[in-house]
Amino acid sequence: MSSPQHLPSSHPRGRWEPALSLLLAVWSHQDSSADAATPPAPPRLKAGGQQCRNPEGVQKRGRESLGGIPSLIAGLFVGFLAAYGAYRVSNDKRDVKLSLFTAFFLATIMGVRFKRSKKIMPAGLVAGLSLLMILRLVFLLL
């Protein structure tokens, strides 16, 4: 039987042989400075190593993951209101009530969140953009 080095490059095992040998070399690597009595340290992955050691960082489980559902629904609803308001403004420049309400609502809610958390992203950014939208809509009415 032939060894993997003699397989043609079109053969699946022949094509993956360098990667497999590198992977085996990494996993079988032992620290040369360690004592013979101490077992070798387990190999560590460079990318995503923190998530592998902390499964809670990867995915929340149980009741903790339900916190995003109301936020998702509220975001979709406000996004729909903003899109419909923009559609109405594009048809009639004086019909800004819905867009003005949506921008005021977002500026109020996100402004309160920004004041409480002191974080620019995302609450401060959305509050600032909503205030700019209110200014734009008021200038459309003038």
From TrEMBL:
Keywords of the record: Endoplasmic reticulum, Membrane, Mitochondrion, Transmembrane, Transmembrane helix
The record's section on InterPro entries has: TMEM14, TMEM14_sf
Segments forming a coiled coil: none
Span list, region Disordered: 33-62
Main localization is endoplasmic reticulum
Topology in membrane? Multi-pass membrane protein
Where exactly are the transmembrane stretches of this chain? 68-86, 98-114, 120-141
Q: Where in the cell is it found?
A: Endoplasmic reticulum membrane; Mitochondrion membrane
- Report one GO cellular component: mitochondrial membrane
Q: What does this protein do?
A: Inhibits apoptosis via negative regulation of the mitochondrial outer membrane permeabilization involved in apoptotic signaling pathway.
Q: Which family does it belong to?
A: Belongs to the TMEM14 family.
What is this protein's record name?
A: Transmembrane protein 14A
Record the organism: Equus caballus (Horse)
